[in-house]
Specification:
Rossmann fold, AMP-dependent synthetase/ligase domain-containing protein, ANL_N_sf, 17 helices, GMP Synthetase, Chain A, domain 3, 551 residues, nine-stranded mixed β-sheet, alpha/beta, ligase activity
Length: 551
């Protein structure tokens, strides 16, 4: 068998960009994008992306250049997921909730050559550019055309905007017959994503064409997505490229229902108007759906993929009672999308609803596209016992794991070790049935008197309190114990307000006493990123400012 070797006919580099070519042929007349009164078909989306890629190439954007985008979930944001890498460039979608200083730092760190700017964020980007050091080379700007009549005042900055181009003018000048730039190697970088801000020092995650192709197809298989679904965009496309669903939806010829902003009633309206079949979102979206006032019952089930912290069981049950079929996944910016999910077993349908919710909150087993997953001792690398109790760090290896962190070889080597594993920084356990469950981020484990306390476990008890709307638990310094749990909670508006003592007693009746919060802080709202993740580093700062606990 030694005579066989790779040949051009069987070694074409993997890339998800080719999904768009196929969609234009297989689903050309089907709707690709819906946004307010704007509708495109797959053949139109294909043509627009080719023309935009052509125009980018004509102004000097080429292979390896970083092109940034700051935009909401609008049609242009979707198209740029194809158009930018189609000219060979690296797509960099930035979090719209960041401040001007952070945007400025990230644009400089990435070496961005061009920035596409949603009209609502023009002021933000111009302020960011004004913070560049003198004599710095500024990236070119392209303004996305306004989709409403709102006038956004521009900041008083010393920048020459005379040569700024518009998005639609770029498309008008483009060549629909453009031969898009296929990667020379499937390992070529395709996107650069900065971590979402749950830590104080975001890092630039670089993914290849190969990795993004694998995770896009893998997500469709794992979630059992059929051909031509109707997908509602609640998950920001800037967050890990919407977990790769811009490319995945092209693979199955889906309809992308775009939303600039939303709340519970808006989500239900869009679901009913467009016949939505699938959507993704953080647990905060689940809560939004569960808490919506007088929602109209769903006429058919809607598949909802959620990820991040385990959704509270009461929120899970309320959302499922309304007709949402919820799958709990697990992934990181560094894995490009879902790396594990709670693959549901039919026999679990016979269990009580509360037990089903407990099982569904687990992160589960690796996806088919992720080669291996384990929970290991961080120091020696030995697998922990499969007893659902022994804590360790979740490690992964597979084709969708990032290439590394941009300009940061030390951090890259720290998490991608010589033993072949990517160390996630998440603390978890493996149950006897082989299903993994996240217990905390390694930095969020509270060590009190030598005992490891999972903040997630404490939070799950707090969420069961009838008056608590949201809860987050972090460590507070303690002179005797080293650290003690400090709970930040927001309360529901329509219930009798408990005292701190009431909540502590509630917890003491439901968990070991060493896990009970020694401090309860009432807040109007918990700090979150734009993707709904709790900003625990902010809460840790607040807890530390309280000083050493006295109890």
């Amino acid at each position: 068998m030694d005579q066989f070797k790779p040949r051009p006919a069987n070694s074409s580099p993997l890339t998800p960009l080719g999904f768009l070519d196929r969609a234009a042929t297989a689903y050309g007349d089907s709707i690709s994008i819906v946004y307010n009164t704007t509708t495109y078909t797959w053949s139109q989306t294909h043509r627009r992306c080719l023309k935009l890629a052509s125009s980018l190439s004509s102004i000097g954007i080429k292979a390896g250049h970083v092109v940034s985008v700051i935009a909401a979930n609008i049609p242009e944001m979707y198209e740029l997921h194809f158009a930018v890498p189609m000219c060979g460039a690296v797509l960099n979608t930035l979090n719209t909730r960041l401040d001007a200083h952070t945007i400025s730092v990230l644009l400089r760190h990435s070496g961005s050559k061009l920035v596409f700017v949603d009209h609502l964020f023009r002021s933000l980007v111009l302020q960011a550019l004004s913070l560049f050091p003198p004599q710095s080379q500024l990236p070119m700007l392209i303004f996305l055309n306004s989709d409403d009549d709102m006038e956004i005042p521009l900041p008083d900055v010393d920048l020459d905007l005379s040569d700024v181009k518009t998005y639609e003018s770029m498309i008008e000048k483009g060549d629909a017959g453009y031969e898009w730039v296929r990667p020379k190697s499937e390992w070529d970088p395709m996107v650069l994503n900065y971590t979402s801000g749950t830590t104080s020092s975001p890092k630039g995650v670089v993914h290849s064409h190969r990795g993004l192709c694998i995770v896009s197809v893998d997500s469709l298989i794992e979630w059992s997505v059929p051909k031509q679904p109707v997908y509602l965009w609640t998950l920001p496309m800037f967050h890990a490229n919407g977990w790769c669903f811009p490319w995945a939806m092209a693979a199955v010829g889906g309809t992308n229902v775009c939303l600039r902003k939303f709340d519970g009633p808006v989500l239900y309206q869009e679901i009913h108007t467009h016949g939505v079949t699938h959507m993704c979102g953080a647990p905060v979206v689940l809560k939004m759906l569960a808490d919506a006032p007088s929602p109209q019952p769903l006429t058919r089930p809607v598949s909802l993929l959620t990820a991040g912290a385990p959704p509270p069981s009461n929120v899970l049950m309320r959302a499922e009672a309304m007709g949402f079929v919820i799958t709990h996944g697990y992934g990181l910016t560094e894995t490009g999308g879902t790396a594990a999910s709670c693959a549901w077993k039919s026999e679990w349908n016979k269990l009580p609803v509360i037990e089903q919710a407990r099982l569904k909150a687990r992160q589960g087993v690796r996806t088919n596209g992720m080669a291996e997953m384990d929970v290991v001792d961080s120091e020696c690398g030995v697998s922990v016992k499969r007893d659902g109790v022994s804590l360790g760090e979740v490690v992964l290896r597979g084709g969708s794991v990032m290439l590394g962190y941009l300009n940061d070889p030390i951090e890259t080597d720290k998490c991608m070790r010589d033993n072949g594993w990517f160390y996630t920084g998440d603390v978890g356990v493996i149950h006897s049935d082989g299903y993994m469950e996240i217990k905390d981020r390694s930095k969020d484990v509270i060590i009190s008197g030598g005992e490891n306390i999972s903040s997630i476990e404490v939070e799950s008890v707090l969420y069961s309190h009838p008056a608590i709307d949201e809860a987050a638990v972090v460590a507070r310094p303690d002179k005797y114990w080293g650290e003690t749990p400090c709970a930040f909670v927001s309360l529901k508006s329509d219930t009798i307000k408990p005292t701190s003592k009431d909540i502590v007693e509630f917890c003491r009746a439901r968990m070991p006493h060493y896990m009970v919060p020694k401090t309860v802080v009432f807040v109007a709202e918990l700090p979150k990123t734009s993707t709904g993740k709790l900003q625990k580093f902010d809460l840790r700062i607040r807890a530390k400012a309280l000083g050493h606990s006295l109890l």
